[in-house]
Amino acid sequence: MFVFPKGLVHFQYNAGTSYAIALSAFGSASAGTVSLPGTLFATGIDDAVLAKSFKTDVGVIQKLKAGLAVKP
């Protein structure tokens, strides 16, 4: 069983060799929303970790981050 606080971005990975089944539920009728671009790409998460998570390369991650950068 996994419990995630409201608004926390998360993922799960099946490291096994057989299928995994997931059942999810919200703890309230108003689960809220999270802006994933800012939550993922405007943080200190290492580019290599993001690249592996999204099955892409570091160059793509850097382009995404550059597109989300606050312009002066």
UniProtKB/TrEMBL annotation:
Name this polypeptide is given: Cupin type-1 domain-containing protein
InterPro entries referenced in this protein's UniProt entry, alphabetically: Cupin_1, RmlC-like_jellyroll, RmlC_Cupin_sf
Domain Cupin type-1: 1-58
SUPFAM superfamilies: RmlC-like cupins (SSF51182)
